[in-house]
Write the structure tokens for this entry.
Amino acid sequence: MVSRGVQLIKARGKEVTEPVVRAATAGMKEADTSQTAVLNDLFAPLSRKRVKDLGLTEDEEGRYVARLSREIEASGAMDKVAQGCFEHYASCHRHDANFGRYLKAHEWLGAYDVLAGEMRAEREYALLAYLPHLLAAFFPLFQERGGGRVERAKADYENYLVTRANEEIYAALARGLRAAGGGYRHLAGDAVLRLEVAPLLMRIVSPPLKPVNRQIIRPGERAVLGRVVDIMVALELRFVQEKMEDGQLTYRLDPPIDVFVTYDGKRAADIAVSKYAVRQLVATEIDARLVSVQTETGDKGRPGKEGFFRQGAGSRGAKAAAKHPGEDGEPQAKRARGDGGVPAVKVAVDFFGRPIVPKADADKTSQEKVKEAEARKTAAYRVAYRFNEGNSAAVRKPVKVAAFV
């Protein structure tokens, strides 16, 4: 392939020299050039070995604009290279009392952003050839021999993942606000939810309580605890117990709205540190409240045993009263309810609500009871026993005792 390329250059009537051969590949996209290699060339000068391999003179080594612009354009990822420059330039520790280098870097990045945005908006792709020159300006500002290697730009993707996770948390909190009823639905807007509800709600669910246990708690703290439980149950907030890597138990807030008041592992000063005992107490109260709510919801409208039997007895009494009305032509039940005289005598009932009727033989004497018992005596039964040998041949065949010895 190399010989054919040299023959092609020779056929065009040009003198075959090293600069001509190197310039023949200008403008071609280099698939093996990664953005990390381009960033390393932007923030570090060429090594002596690299200069020798490229065959560059001292004067050509100082002309970096064309070389770096060609590398940036050949990478095919100028936006990622610009993102890497923005992420890495602040870590270059070079003495600059007036921060002139950093101000110039901001200007070059701003110019690149404006030019790239206008190019895509107006579809003026002829400006694409000028974009690499704006990034090549980072070389004279931050190039340093022996500096740290540039890593792949990942801050943008990490921030994207954090943004998506926060949006999911806001969506879960908004669903809880809408499900709570009319008292909280007006707080489910995006701006109000992010600026007012989430930060203040974290302060509400982190009360400064100091309880000993569930039974020993001050009356004032019990009122605060009850209000916190009401709010968390209404908004579907829970404390979920988890085990950390070191085996220690902890309670995690679900949805985790505490991420909005925590920055680099530090919390706001006006938010009390939520202790394990306090979260355990709140979680226990929430579970008890949910159990009571589910029990009330399940038993609501369901008749009990006593109501069932009383309903049957009442229907039978109403039918009897309808068949035998009183003197005034109204059923007895209506007349008894209408007159305000002496209240009716309570009738003793059993476990199922049925009235207990006294037995008829309660007034009989002992001699009469003995006579009735003797009269109820019946003749003795005749007991008979019949042995069934069965149909098996092993049973019917006679066997001598000597066979078992």
Remarks:
- The first helix runs from residue 2 to 11.
- The chain is about 55% helix and 5% strand.
